[in-house]
Amino acid sequence: MDMDIDKLTRAVAVSALFHDIGKFWQRAVKGDEGLSLETKKLEGELCPDWGRYRHVLWTSEFFEQFGALFPIDVSESLTGDALDNVKNLASRHHAPKSPLQVIVQQADWLSSGMDRTKAEDLKDEESGTFREKRLISVFSGIGSGSKGKRWVYNLTSLKPDESVFPFQEEKMSDLTGEYKKLWDDFIEEFKLLGVLRDNFNVWIASALSLLEKYAWCIPSSTMDVPDVSLYDHLRTTCAIAAALLRYHFETGTLDKIEDIKDRDRKKFIFINGDVSGIQDFIYMLSVTNVKGASRILRARSFYIYAFTEGIISYILKEIGLLPASCIMNAGGRFIILAPNVESVRNKMEKLSKEISLWFYDEFSAVLSLNISYDVEISGNDLMRENFSKTLIRVQDSVEERKKKKFIDILKEGARGFTFDDLFEGLRRDGHCRYCGTYPAVEEIEDEEGEAIKVCRKCKSFVDIGRWLTEVDVISYAGVNLGLGVPILRGKVYLNFHKLSEVNIAKYGDKIYHLEMLRYFPGFIYPVKFIANYVPRWANEERSIYEEVRELKQDWEEAMGRTKTFGEIAKMGTLDSDGEGKPMLGVLKADVDNLGKIFSVEFSKNMSISKYVTLSRSFDFYFSAFLDELVREKYRNIYVVYSGGDDLLFVGEWKEIFEFAVEMYKKFRKYTTENEDITLSAGIALIGPKYPVNRGAVMADEFLERSKSFKENGKIVKDSLTIFNTTVRWGFLLDELIKWRDMLEGWLISKDSNVKTTFLHRLLTYQRMAKRYYEDGDIEGLRFTYLLRYDVARNLVEIKDGKIVKGREERDKLFELVENNLRDKYRKLWLGLRIPISYVIYKYRGKKIKREA
């Protein structure tokens, strides 16, 4: 075929992206509502059998009614065949006749991971209860941890709150009304897309974002176990269709239907990217916590996301693919589905070297982006029975690539093994005040107006950190559009915009990709939730500013700026007239056994759509929900990063602890209380002047302890490590927090003799018990009678033969001693350091005001 392949790619991508939009509309109406007479007459042509797969009629009607809003002519013939237009490619995917229509059909099937031509799959889902079935949470199908319970989602637009959490469905009901409201809201926003028609990339990215917002909760199919959303099915169908088209175009088989249907041929590759060195890069702070260093932490974390997104945009542009072709992008990892053709392999070889050179020069090899694209994939490899094995092959390729960082440039002598220019710069200019690693070639003012010398990178991070607080939109373009930072030596620019200043018509095709940082009413640009909250001085906090401020600024200067770590820590002491020791908590957490969760043995019927659903769902919890939770409830926590399946937060230590507890509880609910999906965490407590990078390393060590925690000789994970003690989350929530509240209640009560000196002695008894239980130290057993003696002598008061003070303390503490051989109480003694230490730290140095 003699045709413009880029134009054809866009047309096929749009067709595939909206091929099942009719399912959404059909479920929002009764009978044939919404269909014109002309569309009804097409049933014999569009449906494989009369009365079957009738959703394609609503797909056809959708293009008929809203075709003018698309960036391409949906009725224009693509091949000379009048039926080969966007509208027909989308609506004829169940009864295809032309090669292009077959491509959309095959992409639809491969996305689902099943061959629907099998007799057992030819069931009519559009009868009976198809309007009553909700989307089942993909998490409930992991292992057997949800125990067969039916966890489903409400039909609601996507937003970072608990309205998008799954719930246990007791009985099904007609959902037509809920579908109608969702559909009407979708259409109102879809109509706004027309203003973006002049920039195809922005339009289709906005369409993807809109589909995510409204179709994330809609089952793509109501047959079997409906646990893949319509959004994820549409996105992956679009990605597969684009790759299939370009494969058959380049191999000269675009007119051969049997070749298009061939699933044995290796037509695809996964272009995998994995950023290494993220923690070393983020934690790259100088040995002292200089003023203002905190403000670049978030910028560094954001920058990793941003350069990854920018590189993805550049790769997609260079190999002729579209935003939907990136089927996963979270936590410094991405996957692009591409055609297995010579032009793409040659282009990727060139791009890989170009990217490696930039990382080597820009970050002195601290960071690297490891790209692999050597695993060839057939259609059969994408089928449900094979897909998890395909993922293993791909992951093995990525791991092998990570072992050979920069090998492609070093083996050719493009760069040496020494950094002469770096050493010469350090000798000449000195070290950066912030990172202490690169030459100090830029002069800026710190938060108190003092001139300091920093490196070029830290200067850009200071700018990024400031811009992030002032703008609403970021874009990736081939030029600097104002506030821009170059990526890949200017091949891509990361640009920052206020919403009112975005001008799509002016920028034209210079923009590769554009994202709003949150939803804004009336604006239809793509939305990317990024966890980037930092505590700022708000107007209502003026009364406490003078008590905690670190910088020489009056309130007018300080309002709106980021709180320093010292100020955050000091705010934790304000409940006792400013006394006590200010402390920070550094929280690090991630999902346990992630590889197992995605494995073929664990995840039933893993298709490419299901994989995308699972990845997106994890990322939404960390990047969207947790960020919003902090904004609303934990205002003195600094989000360093959160996305993919892990996080790093810094904040006032008590607030960090309370957040960690709620984070875990919400995670359990979000993942259907599945016992096979767990989370581990570590919290390090540090002083406000202690380098945060070292605190993060400590938190990471505690996290590793949580992940190696054993019970009865078996590693169980699902734990928290704090105060140098590791416990299962469930035990912490059920028992240890009760003990914390009880100990604190005794300490501040006028009716108790418990003092902090007793808590220190109780901590000594706990250490003795730990030695006895874990090491078999018989001397440790002395804790039993020492504690009884201590309680009787110091806590209990007896008058006229009756206990007048200390009865509860005696009963509870004696209970610990008398039952010390029972498993529950052994666990209590081993974990008791957490509640004791919590109360000691909270009241250290404070004048305790005892309450009646």
Automatic annotation (TrEMBL):
Keywords: Antiviral defense, ATP-binding, Endonuclease, Exonuclease, Hydrolase, Nuclease, Nucleotide-binding, Transferase. The keyword Nuclease applies. Pfam families: Cas10-Cmr2_palm2, Csm1_B. Residues 582-719 form the GGDEF domain. NCBIfam families: cas_TM1811_Csm1 (TIGR02578). Belongs to the CRISPR-associated Cas10/Csm1 family. This is CRISPR system single-strand-specific deoxyribonuclease Cas10/Csm1 (subtype III-A). It comes from Candidatus Thermokryptus mobilis.
